[in-house]
Amino acid sequence: MKIMPNRLDRGFYLYQKEFEDKALEILRSGWYVLGNEVSKFEEEFAEYIGTKHCVGLANGLDALWMAFRILGIGKGDEVIVQSNTYIASVMGISMNGATPVFVEPDEYYNIDTSKIEEKITDKTKAILVVHLYGQSCKMDDVVALAKKYNLRLVEDCAQSHGSKFNGQITGTFGDIGCFSFYPSKNLGAFGDAGAIVTNDEKIAQDFRVYRNYGSEKRYYNKVVGTNSRLDELQAGLLRVRLSHMEELTQEKIAIAKRYDEELNNSKIKLPTVRENATSIYHQYVIKCEERDAMIEYLNELEIGTIIHYPIPPHLSEAYAYLGFKKGDFPIAENYADTVLSIPMYNGMTEEEQTFVINAINRF
Ligand SMILES: *Cc1c(COP(=O)(O)O)cnc(C)c1O
């Protein structure tokens, strides 16, 4: 049985008729960028998250870099971020000229909040939390620190659509929640898409202006903005998927539960969820000292896996200019060498799950 790490087609066929009807409706409408579908999606997504505002954007990276731009954070400023994140989180900071300051992750693969305070200097302007793999960071600590040091708080929710800490949904703890709807995310479009959520009307309005060349009124440009508009097709298709978000999320949680209960191999460490936190299992990430042998073994059985992520940002070529070397963030480096995301997607059959479980247990 051939099993890929992700099957985006399955997610399409789950609601094929609804997606196709919506796509045709939009194609026939004659309106393709920033229209009714985008406004409706923004309304519905804000309601889903529980914020006053949502602004649709072209992708998740735009949400991140525009967040710091709009908060006035740039050259000479420092932003705290975890050392094992996806590179986009870090680029969102550095594209503004600000300096990312790395903090090691905890056993849940999220920022270790006990190590944040020692990294705060008089240049620190913000904390960027990343709810990695779908699980919320320890937000009570983060919110307290942001308050104590008067820092801005931005959340990278590209992997955490709907996950919670102490019952509160991620994206609502800070100034801005940044979302990606890249096809593989838990709420995925059929191309690139993103959004921010906020309760601050001024911030929301700034994003609306920024995403459209800095203009509020056509051809009257207030600031040097960008083109980060969400198109109608993606927004409409996202509305279809969003209307099924509860069942899609529960399906992934159920697959994770099976993995939790049935994976049994002393060579691997299963993911755990912190007390008071929830995970929507964007990825199901196991840890294995013999990871590379495990990948090869699974490949032979035609089971695909992915490493999220093989190179921590501080060691990537793009950030050589920061001057870090191997050994500077040993926990992130260890994770890069040992983590493995196993197949997990909406529409994964029980048979496929069983095949993966049996294969890993026999390794
Ligand atoms: C996917 C992702 C992003 C970037 O989103 P894009 O829509 O691909 O630009 C940012 N941060 C994290 C943690 C992600 O997983």
Layout: helices, strands, pairs:
Layout: H1 8-14, H2 16-29, H3 36-49, E1 53-57, H4 60-70, E2 78-82, H5 87-94, E3 99-103, E4 124-130, H6 139-148, E5 152-156, E6 164-165, E7 168-169, E8 176-180, E9 194-198, H7 201-210, E10 215-217, E11 220-221, H8 232-242, H9 245-262, E12 268-269, E13 284-288, H10 291-300, H11 330-338, E14 339-342, H12 350-362
Parallel strand pairs: 2-3, 2-4, 4-5, 5-8
Antiparallel strand pairs: 1-9, 6-7, 8-9, 10-11, 12-13, 13-14
Helix pairs in contact: 2-8, 3-8, 4-5
Task: Describe this entry's structure for a reader.
The structure is a single chain. The chain is globular. It is 37% helix and 16% strand. The two termini are 17 Å apart. Helix 6 (139-148) links the parallel strand 4 and strand 5. The longest helix is centred in the C-terminal third of the chain and has 18 residues, at 245-262. The chain has helices at 8-14, 16-29, 36-49, 60-70, 87-94, 139-148, 201-210, 232-242, 245-262, 291-300, 330-338, 350-362; strands at 53-57, 78-82, 99-103, 124-130, 152-156, 164-165, 168-169, 176-180, 194-198, 215-217, 220-221, 268-269, 284-288, 339-342. The relative contact order is 0.17. With 363 residues, it is an alpha/beta fold. The protein has two domains: 8-103 and 110-242, Aspartate Aminotransferase, domain 2 (3-Layer(aba) Sandwich); 245-362, Aspartate Aminotransferase, domain 1. Helix 2 (16-29) runs antiparallel to helix 8, helix 3 (36-49) runs parallel beside helix 8 and helix 4 packs parallel to helix 5. It contains twelve helices and 14 strands. The strands form four sheets. It has a seven-stranded mixed beta sheet, with helices on both faces. It has a three-stranded antiparallel beta sheet with strand order 12-13-14. Strands 6-7 form a two-stranded antiparallel sheet.
